[in-house]
Amino acid sequence: MQRRSKAYHISILAVLIAIVISQNVVPFFGYIPILGLSLTTIHVTVIIAAVVLGPKDGAIVGGAWGLIDWARAFIAPTSALAPLVFTNPLVSVLPRILIGVVAGWLFIALKQRAKPAVGLTLAGVAGSLTNTVLVLGLIGTLYRHAAAGFYQVDLSKLMPYLLTVVGTNGIPEAILAGIVVPLIGVPLLRYRQRKG
User: Fold this and answer.
1) Contact 53, 103 (CB under 8 A)
2) Rounded to two decimals, what is the model's pTM?
3) Which domain of life is it from (predicted)?
4) pLDDT tens-place string over residues 52-107
5) How far apart, in Å, are the Cα atoms of 45 and each of 49, 52, 120, 176?
6) Where in the sequence is the domain holding 133, given as residue range(s)?
7) What is the domain count for the chain?
8) Distances in Å between the alpha carbon of 54 and those of 66, 106, 185?
């Protein structure tokens, strides 16, 4: 029974990593352009891994996403800024790993205090904001001059500009995660409990 449970766990982890790979490769699956914004959906998969399988596996799935972003920055950059900032694993990999860590541990902390849907919603929002704040914060801290030039803003206005990006891109992504994670997470958690 233990061996079957471990095989089930590894197969779910593999499926989630495969979904992350697909979201990075298939157009409009991982990055959806809406009204001039590019909403990321990949973080939702990482958060689901974290709440269903645990923070460690969420970190593994997030790390897979980060490594893909890191490799793409060298091979097929998504913007002119990507080869400069996303070739640094502190910007491309670390925030994606921490999505799983933050969302997973927050869900565990809320498990006894709140209904599963509430815990999943809060974990979704927190995981999403972890990614947005860390990526933009690290860009603003480590690559201030390059980012100011790329975004065509005065250096003194870079942080307010990045905060605007958090509001216009980060908040919708957090709302998306707060809605989708419980919709997918609640049935998966129920199924997992039934499997024992």
Assistant:
1) no
2) 0.91
3) Bacteria
4) 999 999 999 999 999 999 999 999 887 778 888 999 999 999 999 999 999 999 99
5) 6, 11, 13, 12
6) 2-195
7) 1
8) 18, 10, 12
